[in-house]
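Practice set, problem 2.
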Amino acid sequence: MIIRPLSLGAATPVALRSIGEQCLSALPRQQLRSAQSTQRAFTTARVLRNALSKGPGQAQRLRTGYFLNNSFLPRTAIVSKARASTSTSFTASQPPIPARDAAAPVTETTPEVDLPHRRRQKARKDAQAASAEAGPEAAAEPVIPPDASSVLTTASSNLPINSFKRTLSTLLALTKPRLSFLIVLTTTSAYSIYPVPALLSPAITDTPSLSALTLLFLTFGTSLTCASANTLNMLYEPKWDAMMSRTKNRPLVRGLISPRGALLFAALSAAIGTGALYYGVNPTVASLAAFNIFLYAGVYTPLKRVSVINTWVGALVGGIPPLMGWAAAAGQTATGSGDWKELLLGYENMGGWLLAALLVAWQFPHFMALSWTIRHEYKNAGYKMLAWTNPARNGRVALRYSLVMLPLCIGLCAVGVTEWSFAVASTPVNLWMVREAYRFWKYEGLKGSARGLFWASVWHLPAVMVLAMVEKKGMWQRVWRAVGGAVEDDEWEEIEEDEIPGKTTVASV
């Protein structure tokens, strides 16, 4: 017996009666193999005859589920895929279904009824068809956080025109607040990690300590120079920002500020920021900040549409802020002229370069995972990124630089910036990053590996920087001396000299 696709909602009583007659005529007339099969056949025939004898109105009771749930029907040849062109109802004018031979194979198709699992299957097929234009596995791509500039732009567009809050919100959106905050965080962290001798000594005048005023100038100047670089970046690419969902809501794309106004804001931010670093910190830090503006806005930004080497240039941009923080702290303990050679070169400044290398290495797994989620948008906008030009290499680069962070953390201990306990404490965090980078390389971003690596990188950097500050060289010894009043080393030497046998002191008259 063949059960064709049926939609009972559209069938009439006459049509249902015709179905019952066709099913009754299709029952096997041959001798059945067992008494149990014979009993089931007679039971099915009796149900059909009783229902049909009561008229067309009673035929509504013969639901499709009766036939599909009856064990009399074979289950071995059910076809799960129904053709879209199959009719959804039967009419009385259709020819009856011929009786089949008992040994002939039975083919059934599941009825196209609007059941929940059918709706879910249809939704999945529609999602796959919609994502086919963007590329394979687009529906499985992880969702990245919304761009902070776009969120601020939306908020400012709802404010009254020419209001102070609207202007302030628009200018803040030009600075890329999250990126600027990350840069300031790495700068001030390197400043605090610098190993100043006896930083927490009870006697403040005994040894130099880091200045809070210098830290304030460093934070203020770095924030403004970041704002200038990010604004110039937006000024260069509003045409291509409009092509990407993550950046299409930025201020210049929405027209909330004119290019002339944005350029003026970038110029003032650069001038005030570098001036604050020059007079409040030192000329070396101010020069590094000005160079970073040029490198980000003048080299990295236009290079994004030329070559994938732009990713390495962008990583260098991220490695300069830790050097700025290190040079700001080193300038307070300089014994010479305090020029860039004394603040950045030499073995005593190896810690600053290791921190810069750590930031450079961190950016690769972070950006490779981030760019993979929007690789098709990068491609449509014309940006040369490994995520779409060479996905296999994209994963290898992320894994390679995640492995580099392990020896870099050990190197901070070897040069005396942190205690050796930092190497132990940072290893689980680094191994977490390596694990996610390995999955990202293995699955090429699929199976949630890109999302896992992205969030691992988001938490990795602050965790490592905080651990480095907590495990700073000599930090807890100085805290203990400050709290417990322990005897200093020079005091122990004076005590030992006083206890030498036969040594007497002559009292002055």
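Problem 2, part (b): a different protein.
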Amino acid sequence: MIAVDFASIKTIPYAPFPQIEYQNRVEQARRLMKKCAFDALLVTSEHNLRYFVGEVSSTPHGTTRPRFLLIPSSGDVLAIVPTGVDQFYRETTWVRNCRTWPGPNPKDEGVSTLATALCDLLPEDARIGTELGAESRLGFPVGDFLRVAEAIKPRMFVDASDPIFTPLRMIKSPLEIDRIRTLCGIVSEAFNDLPAKLRPGMTEREACRVFELDCFIRGVEKTTRVQGLSGRGGVTRPYGVPTNRVLSNEDLLYIDAGFLFDFYWCDFPRKFSFGTPDPHTNDAYQIVWDATEAGIAAVKPGIQICDLWTAMSDVLHGSNSRSKVTNIGRMGHSMGLWMPELPSVQPDDKTILKPGVIINIEPSTSYTSYFDGSAKLMLHEEVVVVTEAGAELLTFRAPRTMPVVA
């Protein structure tokens, strides 16, 4: 059993975002609403509510008692929430105007209250933007959404994900970037110190729990997921729940970390070799490290994100590489209050990079096991933010050579 020195547990202080931060987000949304001829924006998903409201609830929204935020093109913002949540909003957020219903009420979980508010406050020909597009989710049941849509006719819902939610949240404010920078630093430090805490004979579960505990001690607030995989001469996939598999010489241990700090995400993995890595694993590690370096160097404001794909792909398919293309459809993404977020680092994504965009640089390659000829996967990931000058690395760069567990 690992002894915990409770005096060493860190709680990293931070100030809540000021009200002006949320007011600016609402005004930016309204400028985009005007451009798209939207009369209002209906916010329903947990991460979008946090973006606009600054809600500090530590529990995820359940399937009962949904919460809604109505942002009209002008005038006061309105929260439509279950009774009791209105008090919580008034005391902990900047939102003061609320309509409520007594919940939970499965037969009418806010449907009538929401439909009445939309009819009271918006003209009959109103176009109401909400989360209907790529990589978005409604924060209440689809059946209830269809009931509201029917009740408010001829008013209509239209997709606001692509024209409003995605471009708004893609550009992080300095305060948002500071949250992500802090978290990436904490997890990077824990990864750097992990080899000294690992030993042959541990299971994947034990290794991941040691790492997770260290991250909590250093100041992370929540674990979203810690994935751990291992195998002799490499791993076969990037996803997996850690098991009771015992780690031994010639194994590669892959840990992919997802943590939260003030509800902002970090996401990146590291690899550890038990004993000197075999030649094939070592070669793959080096080529993907070089591809990551090329991706980071390519980050500049004004370029298309597909240019990062090209920069990394050129290295992965260069004369020095003995590896093959993987079936992973992208080599990176963004993140913030959710993970992953758009844009994706893909060959057909033409998103223009701007200062404030977070990018997870994530190249991968397939290689042949030194021991049995099976297909193995090598993946690296670093987090950067686009700046006026290029890229700021938010993670601590992975070692040039793979960390070895003695």
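Answer key, part (b): The chain has a mean pLDDT of 94. DSSP finds ten helices and 16 strands in the chain.
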